[in-house]
Write a structure and sequence with these properties.
Layout (H helix, E strand, L loop, with lengths): L2 E6 L4 H12 L6 E7 L5 E7 L2 H9 L7 E7 L14 E2 L5 E9 L2 H10 L11 H10 L6 H9 L4 E9 L6 E6 L4 E4 L5 E4 L11 E4 L4 E5 L4 E5 L3 E3 L4 E2 L15 H7 L1 H9 L3 E2 L4 E2 L8 H5 L3 E6 L1 H18 L3 E5 H4 L10 E7 L5 H12 L3 E6 L5 H5 L2 E4 L12 H18 L6 H21 L3 H11 L4 E6 L3 H16 L2 E6 L16 E5 L6 H12 L4 E7 L11 E5 L7 H19 L18
Parallel strand pairs: 18-19, 18-20, 20-21, 21-22, 23-24, 23-25, 25-26, 26-27
Antiparallel strand pairs: 1-4, 1-10, 2-3, 2-4, 5-6, 6-7, 7-8, 8-12, 9-10, 9-11, 11-15, 12-13, 13-14, 16-17
Helix pairs in contact: 3-4, 4-5, 7-13, 7-14, 9-13, 9-16, 13-14, 14-18, 15-18, 16-18
Bound molecules: 2-deoxy-2-amino glucitol-6-phosphate (AGP).
The site of 2-deoxy-2-amino glucitol-6-phosphate has 15 residues, from α9.
């Protein structure tokens, strides 16, 4: 949830750290700070509550000099979001500074132990315990890295930690367990650390993703990685696919609109090189199972959170309909704590844009512990979930910076369609059915581009309905998860309360809510349940509900019943969710603009929920 960046090399660290924080601000933003070691070995720390701009204003007065430093943007988990609780935290002699992303689960025990040793605490945070532990460990150890390793043996919980000290200057020591951290391998005698690639790609595209248990000593000359159990280890260098431009807004007012608009391209990327027209099949290099091993898959459990969980529901419909495999979808936060029965032949599939969602990672680890084979559908290359699974499919959707997930969602649906094709063609799906799905996938990016032209219409609807206090989204079959996703988008960026419902459930309660103050978005594309959803729309119209119907192709039956009809192109039922979700993304975006919300960084939310 927080953003971490560090620099050691020949340049002044301050400006580089600040630039890195700007690229990480979407990860969490209620306070920020930095620590730099001066050429004389003095450790300076500056931190401020509020957005990054607050820290920038203070630094205008004077940037601490030095070529080695660390910086942090915070999304509070323990302790109010104020300057005192902002990171970096320092030792009592102000000669060690530490930043942290994660949760120290035994902080209370450590506080008591350190208090008994005479340490006093200035903040309410769990993080402060670690900097005092390192201080204490320095009594028995000569180097910052040894002191860090000794201290971390007492720490329980999830962390991505970076530390500098004037007692052992010119190095940054980092450790990762449960929260993402990478090394950026610079050129010309400089190296960096970051929570993700955005923090370092302005300086290098060569990165090393650290694993849980890794502790790294970073200097201008190089780095060494030590695993707490395995000792010194080698980690592979990965090349970042994204350039700096991709992580910028690209001329759009918000990342969210940029990413909505990128969907034709992101869908081309997820399909690139993976469609086999002739055989009506998919080529998935990341699926390393043999056909015999694939044939042994008897059941698939898909686990995810939020928008990714909505994509999982669509995957359930596809895989059962087209690959003939039983599928269950589980909230990761529920799966990780119940006692799931994972018999022989069960595949657990984790879907995650960030690849760092704590609940999804924990659910995956639970599945592995129970002997299930595991797969990931992930966007961020080298992320924890990607590395924890036996095999998987990368989305290659590019960085998704806006907190509200948009292009990742449609890419997840397409990745699931590719997986369905791959499995189905090794089971009962015929070559003709496969070719039909391949043809529909090939047309999809252009159809999405056509659907994006609905921007002005949805902007008008957002102005007309933007003062509503509640919305209802209704869908059936493949469109039920789209109803859930549309409601989530509206909630999280405009703060209007919205609920998604299976349309047939209306008569079991929600229809009591319908009146002229309750806008109803009905997903009514031309599929096998179209006539049923038309009946539901009639029920709502009969009770003065105001209806925005999303249809595919013509819908003469809705004339005089729906107040607004939004038309998207026609495609096969399994891919219709990609098209029907676009106007809902746009509606949510423009409703947020209408209500003057912070679209890319909605209140209380973070892009990657890396704590429970
Ligand atoms: C989606 O708009 C939300 N920001 C959130 O629900 C998100 O989908 C969820 O936290 C899962 O994230 P992940 O895909 O990175 O695991």
């Amino acid at each position: 949830m927080c953003g971490i960046v560090g620099y050691v090399g020949g340049k002044q660290a301050g400006p580089i750290l600040l630039e890195g924080l700007r690229r990480l601000e979407y990860r969490g933003y209620d306070s920020a700070g930095l620590a730099v070691i001066s050429p004389e070995g003095r450790l300076s720390t500056v931190k401020e509550a509020g957005k990054l701009s607050q820290l920038e204003a203070v630094l205008q007065e004077g940037m601490p000099p030095g070529t080695c430093g660390i910086a942090h943007t915070r999304w509070a988990t323990h302790g109010a979001p104020n300057r005192l609780n902002a990171h970096p935290h320092w030792s009592r002699d102000r000669d060690i500074a530490l930043i942290h992303n994660g949760i120290i689960e035994n902080a209370d025990v450590l506080r008591a132990k350190l208090s008994d040793l005479g340490y006093t605490f200035e903040t309410e945070t769990d993080t402060e315990t670690v900097v005092h532990l390192i201080d204490e460990a320095f009594r028995e150890n000569d180097t910052l890295d040894d002191a860090m390793l000794a201290a971390l043996e007492q720490v329980e919980g999830a962390y991505g930690i970076a530390v500098v000290s004037s007692r052992d200057p010119d190095k940054i020591v980092v450790a990762r367990r449960g929260s993402p951290l990478l090394i950026g391998i610079g050129k010309n005698g400089e190296n960096l650390i970051g929570s993700d690639a955005s923090a370092v790609i302005q300086h290098t595209k060569d990165v090393v993703y650290l694993d849980d248990g890794d502790c790294t000593v970073l200097t201008a000359e190089g780095y060494r990685v030590f695993h707490m159990e395995q000792g010194e280890v080698q980690r592979s260098v990965q090349k970042i696919e994204w350039d700096l431009e991709a992580a910028e807004k690209g001329g759009y007012e918000h990342f969210m609109l940029k990413e909505i608009s990128e969907q034709p391209e992101s869908l081309r990327n997820v399909m690139r090189g993976r469609l086999l027209e002739e055989t009506g099949d998919a080529r998935l290099g990341g699926i390393t199972l043999s056909d015999e091993e694939l044939a042994k898959i008897r059941r698939i459990i898909i686990t995810a959170c939020g928008t990714s969980w909505h994509a999982a529901l669509i995957g359930e419909y596809m895989l059962e309909e087209l690959a003939g495999i039983p599928v269950e979808v589980e909230y990761a936060s529920e799966f990780r704590y119940r006692s799931p029965v994972l018999e022989e032949g069960t595949l657990v599939l984790a879907i995650s844009q960030s690849g760092e969602t704590a609940d999804t990672l924990a659910a995956l680890e639970e599945a592995r512990a129970r002997g299930a084979s595991t797969m990931g559908i992930v966007n961020v290359v080298g992320s924890s979930i990607a590395r924890k699974t036996d095999f998987g499919i990368y989305l290659h959707a590019g960085p998704e910076i806006g907190v509200a997930s948009t292009k990742a969602f449609t890419s997840q649906i397409v990745a699931l369609a590719l997986f369905t094709l791959y499995l189905g063609r090794r089971r009962s799906l015929s070559i003709l059915q496969g070719r039909e799905l391949v043809a529909a996938l090939q047309k999809l990016p252009d159809q999405v581009a056509e659907t994006l032209e609905l921007g002005p219409v949805t902007r008008e609807l957002a102005a007309e309905y933007g003062d509503a206090q509640n919305f209802l989204y209704l869908g059936r079959g493949y469109q039920f998860p789209v109803a859930l996703e549309g409601a989530l988008k509206l909630k999280e960026v405009s703060y209007i309360h919205a609920e998604g419902y299976p349309a047939a459930e209306m008569k079991h309660g929600p229809i009591a809510l319908i009146d002229e103050n309750m806008p109803v978005v009905a997903l009514a594309p031309r599929d096998s349940v179209y006539s049923k959803i038309v009946s539901n729309i009639e029920e709502v119209a009969a009770r003065s509900g105001r209806i925005l119907a999303v249809v595919s192709g013509d819908a003469p039956e809705l004339i005089g019943k729906a107040d607004h009809v939004i038309q998207v192109p026609q495609t096969v039922p399994a891919l219709l969710p990609v098209l029907t979700t676009i106007p809902l993304q746009l509606l949510a975006y423009y409703a947020a603009i209408y209500r003057e919300r912070d679209v890319d960084q909605p209140r209380n939310l973070a892009k990657s929920v890396t704590v429970e």
